[in-house]
């Protein structure tokens, strides 16, 4: 039996965000994407993202996991979200000499909060850190204002389109 290829859909970026900002020279330049319903991000750290030689700064690790979980929460409740709580468990130093992937798992999503889990690992599946976060939704108006400033090149998932069409109150 032949395995079906995974469907991958990118999410929009922004101009200035530290994690996905296209115009942020100090940023990570990450693209978030959805694969088989799971929000993911690939990371190729640079030297200026390190706290020690070849060790990604813990704040950078937290930032990419936070943003990836935030997108998972946004997709689950159709609102941009703010981080209400973030807990990161650093298992071992995150190396900067390889590509890394952040994956998310939705624990629970409701109208007032989304609870999400994530992990950052290398291509062999070795996990360097895990995180959990609770995310609070913005209002419809605030969400659409943020969405108006996101960069859509074509083909990205339009998470908030139902709000523009008057749905998902």
Task: Summarize the structure in words.
The chain is an alpha+beta fold and 169 residues long. It has a single domain (8-161), classed as Thiol Ester Dehydrase, Chain A (Roll). 20% of the residues lie in helices and 34% in strands. The protein contains three helices and nine strands. A hairpin with a 2-residue loop joins strand 4 and strand 5 (55-56). The mean pLDDT is 94.
Question: How would you summarize this macromolecular structure in one to three sentences?
Answer:
The protein has about 170 residues and is of the alpha+beta class. The chain is built from 3 helices and 9 strands.
**SSE string:** EEEEEHEEEEHH
The main pleated sheet reads as:
7 strands, antiparallel
Number of helices: 3
Give the tally of β-strands: 9
Just give the CATH class.
Alpha Beta
Radius of gyration: 16 Å
Helical fraction equals 10-25%
Strand content: 25-35%
Spatial order of strands in the largest sheet = 1-2-3-7-8-9-6
**What structural class do you assign from the helix and strand content?**
alpha+beta
Corresponding CATH superfamily? Hotdog Thioesterase
Shape: globular
* Whole-number tally of structural domains: 1
